[in-house]
Every structure is written in structure tokens, then in C-alpha cells.
Write the C-alpha cells for this entry.
Amino acid sequence: MNQSIIQWFRFGSPQAFYPIAGRMIPWFWAAAAAFGIAGLWISFFVAPTDAQQGEGYRIIFVHVPASWMSMFLYLIMAFWAGLGLALNTRLSGMMAQAVAPTGALMALLSLWTGALWGKPMWGAWWVWDARLTSELILFFLYLGFMALQAAIDDPRRADKAGAILALVGVVNIPIIYFSVKWWNTLHQGSTINLTKAPSMAHTMLWGMLLMALCFWMYSIAVALTRVRAIILERERHTDWVKHAVE
Amino acid sequence: MNAFFATVRRDLLLALRRKSEVLTAVFFFVIVTSLFPLGIGPEPVLLKKIAPGILWVAALLATLLGLPRLFAADHVDGTLEQMALSPSSLGLLVAGKILAHWLLCGLPLVLLAPVLGLQFDLDAPALGILTLALLLGTPLLSLIGAIGAALTLGVRGGGVLLALLVLPLYIPALIFGAGAVEAHIAGLGAGGHLSLLAAMLALAVFFAPWATTAALRIALE
Amino acid sequence: MQWNSAGEFFAMGGYAFYVWGSFGACALLMFAEPFLAKRRLSEVRQSLIRELLADELELKQKNP
């Protein structure tokens, strides 16, 4: 086998990854803080007031990044889950398990900020819009994944069962999104059309991108912290763990 | 293929010896659909509007009732392990079990739905569409549900967990199934909905037994 | 810069509740989550260190 591939597999062992993750975490926190400060500065002091929505539109700077992250993180979770099933590596399952709570948090934040945005703009806390509904279903999928993992005591079985669920979810998400959209267009009369986004100034786009990068870095840092805890919990009976905590 | 039919026959025979389990789900379906007019009021216009949704949601929940038993008994007495070790492929046997589950828990709902639809003032063509949609949709529910049943096999709090895993995945079936009847009532034609439902069924027939088998092998390890 | 005073900034053109409710919830949860993750890590670590000390004590008692 190719030398570099072997190298990658070595990083893939929990023993090798634990200290690497520990060294990487502060960098991701620093990046998250830097992007966050820049993003917040733009979102509150540079981006102009919106002509239609006034200052209320500023919620976009947390709402959109949270929605993006909730979707990305599900894909990342499914990627690690699939890798774990295919290659039978221990670390993959731990990564999938570490990513899930952050993904659920992002989905929750997206729903919460969406409701707070919807109330002043459309006069309702909740509209059965295709995107909002899909986000809610995504949140349920995260909860199902976490509940399944929590209910199975044997970590190896929990990993594999969770992996199958995550992959089934990934196949289903496009179908769910499409069906909800179809359903939404059929019932157009009763809902408000939300597809018209406010015309975006360049500065708004920059603010959103910077905030999205901040959320990315944050998610990676938290997931790495959590995966370190999971590694120690699962490998507590091995010798290397004893040396690692000394 | 012999093994497939043998599994179907065996599961049907076992179920017929314990009829109460099958009947529970059917009675549940009947009672739940009859409760809604009592809770909402007897106005025919309103009932006609909500009928497809109510019948479909009740069908979802009724299929859910039978799912935990799909593999549980065979898992406890070791039959499932014998199946996994047998020369015929486990996927085929699992497909047989899913078909038996649909014949026991899905088909009665399809046959009952037109009768229950009468309670909601649906006319004959609408009842036909409802039955057709359920005929395409309930196998889909059994197939998706089987994945959940295999994943939660022998797990703490399996029944509730199963509902949490499976119900979000049932949403497309619910939307297109109930949508078909609604579209027909609105005069839009139900063809699109029904073909999408059939497409999803084809996809599930192909993938679901495979995913269920993988999940069962994990549970048996 | 479109704010003339701090009060105007916090009022958010009448949308204070919605804007600060969104940003506040994000800030709160995004501080709580890393805190909980870190606590989980340090708890495992503490229990592992205690285990290690217990092993050492046992060894000392066996062959002083």
C-alpha cells in the first residue's frame, strides 16, 4: 500500500488522534473568534439598514449560517458514519457521534431565529414553509440519531446502527425536501410566499459569509472537544489512555 | 424464491394463531378515525377536507403498532440467528417477513379505508383514489418501518424509539398519499401524486430490505 | 455607521426583542455547548486520574 495512505490510517487511530485534536482545538477557537468579531462588526456596523425590513433583517446573519451548518453537519455526520461502516475504523463512529449534538443545536438555533424573524416580518411565529418544515424534520432526524446511539449500550453496535440510520436519513433528506416543497406549492393559498429574499447588498453577503465561517470553526472546535471526551470514555481500559492523562 | 414464500407462509400462520395482535392494530385504526369527527364536529364540508389527512395519519400510527413485533419474537427464540446462518440469503427472508407484515398490518387498512372514508362524506371516486394511494403507500410504510424495527431490535425503550426514528421518514409517504386524495377532490387529478408514491415504493423495495438486513446483522453480532 | 447613539443601537429600529432574542439565544447556546463538552472531557480525565492513583496505591500496599 502507498506510504501516504498508511500515514492517514495512523492518524485515524484514536490513540494518535487524541493529542492531535488537543493541539488543533485552540487554533479553531481562535479562528472562530476572529471570524465572529469581523462578522458581528459587519452585521451591526457596516451592513446598511434594509429598505423593506428595517433593522429586523439583521437576524439573517445568524439564521442563515445556523441553517447551513445544520445541513452541512448532517452530511459530515453521514460521511463519517459511512466511512466507519466501509472501513470499520473506530474513530469514524466517534466522530459521527461527536458531530450530532452540534448539528442538532444548529437546527434548533435555525428554528428559533427563524421564528423570531418570522414574527415581525410575516406576522406569525411559524409558517409551514418548505424550508422551515424541512429544517424541523432535520431536527427530528438528529434527535432520532442521538436517541438511538444513547439507547444502545455496546458502543460498536451503537456506531454501526447509527451509521445505517444516518445513511438512510441522507437518502431521505432530498425526498423529504422535495415532497414538502410539492406539498407547499399545492397549498399555496394558505401560506405566504417566502422565496423572495431581500435584495442583498455586498456587505450583507460578506457579513453572512464571515458568520458562516465563524460557525464552521466553532462546530469543528466543539466536535473535536467532544470527540476527545468520547475517545477517553471508550478507550479507558487501554494503556495509552493512562499515559495520555498523566 | 422458495425460502421467500416459506417465510411469508410461516409468518402468516404464526399470526393467525395469535389473531389478537393483528386485530389490535385494525381496531386502533377504526377507533382513531372515528374519534376525529367526535372531536371536531359533524360538518360534512370540514370532514371531507380533513379526511385524507386523518385516514393517512391513522394508518401511519396503526402500522407503527405492529412494527416492534416484526423481528422481536424471532430474535428472542433464536430463529433470526438461524435465518442469518441459513444458506438462502437473509435479504430474501427479510423481504418475506416484510411482505407478511404488510399482508397482516397494511392490507386490512387498505380494505377498511373505503368504509371508514364513508364516515367523512367522501364520494366514490375519492374513495377509490384513497384506496389506491393506501395500496401503494402502506407497503412503503412497512418497508421503511422494517429498517427502524431492525435498528431498535433488543434496545432499551425500543417501541418509543422506533416511533422517533421512523415517523420523520414517513413524511413523504404521508404528503403524497394524503395529497393524492386532496388533489382529486380539488379537481387537479391524482396521477402525479400516485406515480411519485409508486416511484418511492420502487426505490424502497430495492433499498429497504438491504438496509434492514445490514441492521439485523449488526443486532445479531 | 448608521447609529447615532447607544440607545438607538440597542433599540434596533423597534426590532430589539427579535434581533437580540436571536443573537442572544445563539450566544447563550454557543457558550453553553463548549462548556458542557469541556466539562465532559475533564470529568473523564478526573475519573481516569483517580483510577490511576488508586492503582498506584494498591501497588504500594502490596510491595512496600
User: Anything to note?
Assistant: Chain A touches chain B through 29 residues (CB under 8 Å). The helical segments of chain A are 3-11, 14-46, 60-87, 90-122, 130-151, 155-186, 202-234, 239-245. Residues 25-45+57-237 of chain A form one domain. Residues 189-196 of chain A have pLDDT under 50 and may be disordered.
